[in-house]
Write a structure and sequence with these properties.
The complex is a heterodimer of chains A (250) and B (248). With 250 residues, chain A is an all-alpha fold. Chain A has one domain (15-245): Particulate methane monooxygenase subunit c2. Chain: C (Glutathione S-transferase Yfyf (Class Pi), Chain A, domain 2, Up-down Bundle), CATH 1.20.1050.50. Chain A has helices at residues 2-13, 20-48, 55-85, 96-134, 143-170, 180-205, 218-224, 230-245, and one strand at residues 178-179. Chain B has one domain (36-236): Ammonia/particulate methane monooxygenase, subunit A (particulate methane monooxygenase, chain B, Up-down Bundle), CATH 1.20.1450. Chain B has a two-stranded antiparallel ribbon with strand order 1-2. In chain B, strand 1 (170-173) and strand 2 (176-179) form a beta hairpin. The longest helix of chain B is centred in the N-terminal third of the chain and has 34 residues, at 11-44. Classes of the chains: A mainly alpha (250), B mainly alpha (248).
């Protein structure tokens, strides 16, 4: 009887398997931040973003670029450094319940990755199409590029690499080696950022207009396919979670 | 861990954990597919999808199905062959359309002020439903590729006809004959407007007949069959769970 009471107490004191507040706060963080960014584009895109030689362009857009790049490097260093430094060195000896709890945390990261990919690859990338069909570019660092390439892409890269590092440092499932599709799903979309070099090189040489289906853009397409590798991660996770639950769920 | 040890304490908790994972997986899959599919589609068929004056009877009808059958085929190959879930194509297209509609409203209209009846996305739902239904009823990838792929190309123009027909009526403007969609394009000049960039109905034979759209749709359906096969195998590859040697 006493033992049962102790067990119930321990259960009550135990951390929940999934911290739902983190999921909600994470989703809201991206939503609120990107809503603010979209407001900023709306106001300062038209009033200060049309002529890159104007002083107000330097004030409102180039300074935005310098600040975001600095913050991204800092955030990536601190976050990735923390996840690595605080890694579990006895990861193969954790209890099944702790493993399940970590899978929930891992999925919190993956939810954020999917959400960040949406904002980067869908929202701000197609937005770039309409901006450059409207405005004739006179620089590589246009308002839509400063947000799309140098803000939304680094954010999903930081999120994706964090998810991968979390899995690699805390989950027994990923200790066998390197999960091929996990790497594809993180490194592929990451490669879209270096591909910006090709894009800007081409636009500098060939045309200031916009044709979204131009072969110059196919590098983005190729690396965008890598998002499908999330299916390989899902399959691995489903197998692991099924093994952990060991229950007939029908 | 012990081979017989479960991470949960009851069947009820197992069910709850499983359902919670289902939602998290679905959310992640939906938005990751949305992002990948959208960047693929906007950069391979985007200009035809963005503007009504690009939505002609030949190239739009040909290109849009060919480049859009890709992700549905890949996602089907994972969801059907691993989980027997018969909605891979529809969920992919719904994801794409959600991303597109949000963008057309908030950015095409909201930031650069193009009217929505000028920059609405193409309708891909009928083809996606056919793909899923053929796969579900037949259970055959080959039949889905051939019947579903061909139908995906053929149904595209009829599926969009009620939307595009009012914009394809002829109008005379400054002594020139054009469609209402062309007229919209004249009023909304873009950097993709110059004729050395804009790819709309060109050619010779079409001037002798009125059958451009069905022929284009049939050609599109033919290529869709091939693309479906190809992307089905891409999907299988992306669904792998292999590890490679190495560490970070």
């Amino acid at each position: 009887m006493a033992a049962t009471t102790e067990s119930v107490k321990a259960d009550a004191a135990e951390a929940p398997l999934l911290n739902r507040r983190n999921v909600v706060l994470g989703l809201l963080l991206y939503l609120v931040f990107y809503s603010w960014v979209r407001w900023y584009e709306g106001v300062y895109g038209w009033s200060a973003g049309l002529d890159s030689f104007a002083p107000e362009f330097e004030t409102y857009w180039m300074n935005f670029l310098y600040i975001e790049l600095t913050l991204e490097v800092l955030t990536a260093s601190v976050l990735w450094g923390y996840i690595w430094k605080s890694r579990d060195r006895k990861v193969m000896s954790i209890t099944p319940r702790e493993e399940l709890r970590r899978h929930f945390t891992h999925w919190t990261w993956l939810v954020m990755y999917g959400w960040a990919i949406y904002w980067g690859a869908s929202y701000f990338t197609e937005q770039d199409g309409t901006w450059h069909q409207t405005i004739v570019r006179d620089t590589d660092f246009t308002p839509s590029h400063i947000i799309e390439f140098y803000l939304s892409y680094p954010i999903y890269i930081i999120t994706g690499v964090s998810a991968f590092l979390y899995a690699k440092t805390r989950l027994p499932t990923y200790q066998e080696g390197l999960h091929l599709m996990y790497m594809v799903s993180v490194i592929g979309p990451f490669m879209i950022l270096p591909n910006v070099g090709l894009n800007e090189w081409g636009h500098t040489f060939w045309f200031m207009e916009e044709l979204f289906v131009a072969p110059l853009h196919y590098g983005f397409v190729f690396f965008g396919w890598a998002a499908l590798a999330i299916m390989g991660v899902v399959n691995t996770e489903v197998m692991t979670i099924t093994r952990l639950l060991k229950k007939d769920l029908a | 861990m012990s081979a017989s040890q479960s991470a949960v304490r009851s069947r009820a908790e197992a069910v709850q954990v499983s359902r919670t994972f289902d939602w998290m997986i679905l959310f992640t899959l939906f938005f990751a597919v949305l992002g990948g599919y959208h960047i693929h589609y906007m950069l391979t068929g985007g200009d035809w999808d963005f503007w009504s004056d690009w939505k002609d009877r030949r190239l739009w009808v040909t290109v849009a199905p060919i480049v859009s059958i890709t992700f549905p085929a890949a996602v089907q190959s994972c969801l059907w062959w691993r989980y027997r879930l018969p909605f891979g194509a529809v969920v992919s297209v719904l994801a794409l359309l959600l991303g597109e509609w949000i963008n057309r409203y908030l950015n095409f209209w909201g930031w650069t002020y193009f009217p929505v009846n000028f920059c609405f996305p193409s309708n891909l739902i009928p083809g996606a439903i056919i793909l899923d239904v053929v796969l579900m009823l037949s259970g055959s990838m080959t039949l889905t590729a051939i019947v579903g792929g061909l139908a995906y190309g053929l149904i595209f123009y009829p599926g969009n006809w009620p939307i595009i027909a009012p914009l394809h009526v002829p109008v005379e403007y400054n002594g020139m004959m054009m469609t209402l969609a062309d007229l919209q394009g004249y009023h909304y000049v873009r950097t993709g407007t110059p004729e050395y960039i804009r790819m709309v109905e060109k050619g010779t034979l079409r001037t002798f007949g009125k059958d451009v759209a069905p022929v284009s749709a049939f050609f599109s359906g033919f290529v869709c069959i091939i693309i479906y096969f190809l992307w089905h195998f891409f999907g299988k590859w992306f669904s792998k769970t292999d590890f490679i040697e190495g560490d970070i």
